[in-house]
Design a protein that fits this description.
heterodimer; A: about 160 residues; seven-stranded antiparallel sheet; about 45% strand; elongated; B: about 170 residues; alpha+beta; Immunoglobulin-like; four-stranded antiparallel sheet; 1 helix
Chain lengths: ~160, ~170
Amino acid sequence: MHNLTKVAALMGLALGVTATAAAQNNASINATAVVQQPIAVSATRTLDFQNILPGVAKVIGVGAATSGEFSVTGQASTAANMSFVLPVNLVNGGNNLPIGTWTGYWNTANNATAGGTAFTPSVALTGMTFSGTGTAFVFVGATVTPTVAQAAGTYTGTVQMTVTY
Amino acid sequence: MRSSRRVAFSGRTSPLRIRLCILALLALMGLPSLAVAQLTVKADRDLRFQVVIQGVAKYVPPNDPVYSGEFEFTAAIGNQVQLGFTLPNNLAGPAGATMPIAFGNNDAIAQGTGPTSVPVVFNPKGVSVFRLVTSNRILVFIGGTVTPAANQRTGAYTAPIVFTVTIL
């Protein structure tokens, strides 16, 4: 009986431990974040069609000296997305000059003709990647289509580019 | 014969009884073991802030269907349970860098899985007590805010969040 008492006591202790463990449980997750440098976009060069003639469309390619250019800085070697808000007309007072057929080219180097990637600017996201030093360059071209009766004057519009991670 | 049988019987009586008692006690131990099975806690999803920009705080609400942290637990209907978190003050990053993380009073949600269950917002910084009424499986979501400094070291940061459920 003495042994039995000992066994019972041990079992009772075991029961007590088990009952305590039964009342509590836990699990763990992680909180995670990736810190990156902010993106900065600068308008480097205006897309300039210079002089145009009524009734004669004019194309400025991305490699032209007067193509539009943005320079971007961000987290080195990191992917990002570009999107654009583009005008459908350049405006001079109440006169409109249609603009369209947009072209784009992004590069990690300041070069609009080699080593980069052609794309079509639009409101849809277009992928890009910053260079190893965190830079990127984006070139924009387009076509204006003046009518034969296009009023003379200076026409302007705004090309807006947004870059996000 | 009687004597020898009696001797044989009495000689083996004590160990046999002990064995029977042990078996009986082991059987009894099975009852609280069932209680263990009635409380399970599981980690379902990390709380993910994704990309955070230097100098720009970022908040992930607890009802974010993709990036909020998520746990679940099961217990018996009728159980009164106490929910609590062990929360970090900072996320740990590269080269010993740290980034503050904070939790608001409404940054946790308990959501039963029963057809009539309604989400309950609670404070993850304290302990909260609930009684399971309509469902025995509860989803628990947690949100939070990270506040990187303007010169926060870039890179990946992480810290554990521990969720504990106690049946009262």
